[in-house]
Amino acid sequence: MYIGPYQLSNNLIVAPMAGVTDRPFRTLCKYFGAGHAVSEMMTSDKTLRMSKKSLYRANFDGELAPISAQIAGSDPRDLAEAARYQVANGAQIVDINMGCPAKKVCNKLAGSALLQDEDLVARILDAVVAAVDVPVTLKTRLGYLNGQENIMRVAKRAEEAGISALALHGRTREDMYLNTARYSLIKDVKEILNIPVIANGDIDSPEKAKYVLDYTGADAVMIGRAAQGRPWIFREIAHYLKTGEQLAAPSIAEVKEVLLGHLAELYEFYGEYSGCRISRKHIAWYTKGLRSSNEFRQNMYKVESTADQYKVVEAYFNNLLEHGQIMSDVQVEQVNLLETT
Fold it and tell me: CA–CA separation, 172 vs 145, rounded Å?
């Protein structure tokens, strides 16, 4: 698959997720086989450009190419300027966010709220494509409200504007992340466009990835929440698409190694205070479903330093490995119930 002149190594893409897809996470997903990753969204508000959060999000140092920077906003001129800024900062692809359903974004008529104003959508697309000499991609949804899906018009207008690829989440803004993703409109969009179409929404397993690719005819799939605490999902999907066979799940020893390596990268990237706090959600995702993980997490949340956090995570996994306690609490309860009946 190509985005402009850039050939991706495969058709598995990491979805942009605010507060998640920072440089350490993108790098890790690429290590496990993702062919491409898009940054967290960065506001087009230039007054916030030098904020600490924005500087972290715009840090692409040492990242594997092609580097894709996602921008969000509602003013065409501001978005055009933001695109130029990110290209100067090292971005090789600019992605426009018209998909975020969060209230704080939509209340500023950004993200998926833009789908209410197709004229504004068109002006933004034209302005950003004209502003830079790198490929511009678009991430969006089926529409703003159920029953008023306008993605067919938006998608066609995006292609006419010169958008290089379209990533489409199979929900409306009204759906948020509820209900199930709908793929029929993604299929319809693919049939009318000549640019690559990337299917997104509820793709959480190798089988689901293959089904969505086959059903929609999409050129690629975009994985978001399913990769949280499970970056090896890209390795699993790639293996399944190539062989039709399931890849064995990672061992507890490998999960431990991956998580501790991820923590080390987060600590180096964010520093002591933020590194410890940002790491907590990742630790929670990695340990979900493991033996006594709820009790472990409640204790882990109380730890205030990176050194101590690293030690308690390492000790938890060492205990699992020593005692072979890899079943979840629910599974243990089920076994105990069977043994007493």
Answer: 6
Q: Is residue 333 part of a domain?
A: no
Please answer whether residues 198 and 212 qualify as being in contact, where contact means their C-beta atoms are separated by less than 8 angstroms.
Answer: no
Active site residue 276: no
For the entire predicted model, the pTM comes to 0.90
102 & 198 share domain:
yes
**Domain membership flag for residue 132:** yes
- Residue-averaged pLDDT of the chain: 91
Q: Is 18 annotated as a binding residue?
A: yes
The CA distance from 141 to 98, in Å, is: 7
Report the CATH number that the domain containing residue 189 is assigned in CATH: 3.20.20.70
pLDDT digits (tens, 9 = 90+) for 164-196: 999 999 999 998 888 899 999 999 999 999 999
**Residue 70 known to bind ligand:** yes
CB neighbours of residue 335 within 10 Å:
11
Amino acid occupying residue 70? Q
Region for residue 60 given its phi and psi (left: phi exceeds 0; alpha: psi -120 to 50; beta: otherwise): alpha
Is 17 annotated to bind ligand? yes
Are residues 285 and 148 part of one domain? no
Q: What's the pLDDT score for residue 33?
A: 97
Name the catalytic one among 29, 100, 106, 276: 100
Tell me the per-residue pLDDT of 21-35, one tens digit each, with 9 for 90 and over.
999 999 999 999 999
Q: Do both 158 and 276 map to the same domain?
A: no
First-to-last C-alpha distance (Å) of the chain? 55
The candidate with the shortest Cα–Cα distance to 139, out of 234, 13, 225, 311, is 13
Please report whether residue 274 resides in a domain. Answer: yes
- Per-residue pLDDT reduced to its tens digit, 33-74: 999 999 999 988 876 666 767 777 777 888 888 999 999 999
